[in-house]
Write a structure and sequence with these properties.
The protein is mainly beta. It has three helices and 20 strands. A hairpin with a 4-residue loop joins β5 and β6. It is globular and about 45 Å long. The protein starts with a strand and ends in a 6-residue tail after the last strand. One of its GO terms (molecular function) is kinase activity.
């Protein structure tokens, strides 16, 4: 049985309708964010790609003997939000969809990051006026500029990661709609670093943020102990490691989310026996004033 997620865009004088089968084409009963085509699952003895994002090792079922325990932490300049802390509720204007907001302006961020669990016959709502949206499901992603009407439809279950922020416009610069695949993006040079880097959005001026995919082999780490004006929203997709945020050191694993405020000291090292991959939001191309 083949399932599909469709996305429609409506803009002045344009209409684009795409059916993105790789997004949600998983074995029946599997959550969409971590699904891969059935042929891939059948040929592999491992779990589907990013399986631990929605099936974390440390989930509520594993905490029955530790009531009240959570690894989640909130500080004024950073936060670690772990899966056992997720709280899902109906998303405004969405149909048959539950959402868990993980990063929002309430904690000091200038963007929102949330998970949307779409059920059978579900539909998305539109973001507020002048708000741009980026959503990702496994290998596929889409960027929607502000005030572009669009609709996601799903005929099975799927979990989508979504970023939203109020667009900061520049005169004579206009972002375009983008649909892409993470694995088709080229590897970029990272002078002084060893990790592999892909950027999912153009680096040109119309875009006021970007999404990075960063890959580390076991034992690799950031050489630069970063302190900068940019904010970050991070989802660990694969592997495990340790993240320094300010004066604190946090063991992290697939499924964990991190918010980093401007100028918080930050550093990552990949631990364990498997590679690490994380997705990173970063604001770019705008004067911090």
């Amino acid at each position: 049985m083949q399932h599909s997620l469709s996305i429609s865009f409506h803009a002045p004088r344009t209409l684009l309708l795409l059916v993105l089968l790789p997004w949600v084409r998983g074995a029946v009963g599997q959550e969409g964010f971590c699904s891969v085509p059935p042929s891939v699952v059948a040929e592999s003895t491992t779990k589907p790609l990013y399986w631990k994002v929605t099936n974390p090792t440390l989930s509520p079922a594993n905490l029955q003997d530790l009531p009240g325990f959570t690894r989640s932490v909130y500080r004024w300049d950073h936060a670690l939000i772990t899966p056992e802390s997720h709280v899902f509720s109906p998303l405004p204007d969405w149909v048959n969809t539950l959402g868990a907001y993980l990063i929002t302006p309430a904690m000091g961020a200038h963007f929102s990051m949330y998970l949307a669990k779409m059920q059978e016959n579900s539909r998305s709502g539109l973001p507020p006026k002048d708000v741009e949206r980026f959503h990702l499901l496994v290998d596929s992603y889409a960027y929607l500029p502000p005030n572009v009407e669009h609709l996601l439809k799903c005929d099975t279950t799927a979990t989508i990661l979504i970023f939203e922020r109020r667009y900061i416009s520049l005169e004579n610069h206009y972002p375009e709609q983008i649909i892409g695949s993470t694995e088709t993006q080229p590897l970029l040079e990272t002078p002084g670093e060893v990790f592999e880097l892909r950027k999912l959005l153009p680096t040109s001026a119309p875009y006021d943020f970007n999404i990075h995919i960063m890959d580390f082999q076991p034992g690799e780490y950031l050489n630069v102990k970063e302190v900068h004006y940019n904010q970050h929203g991070l989802l660990l997709l694969e592997g495990q490691g340790i993240y320094r945020l300010g004066d604190s050191w946090y063991p992290v694993q697939a499924g964990d989310v991190i918010w980093m405020a401007p100028f918080v000291p930050q550093w990552y090292a990949a631990l364990g026996k498997t590679p690490s991959r994380y997705l990173l939001y970063k604001d770019v191309n705008r004067n911090p004033l």
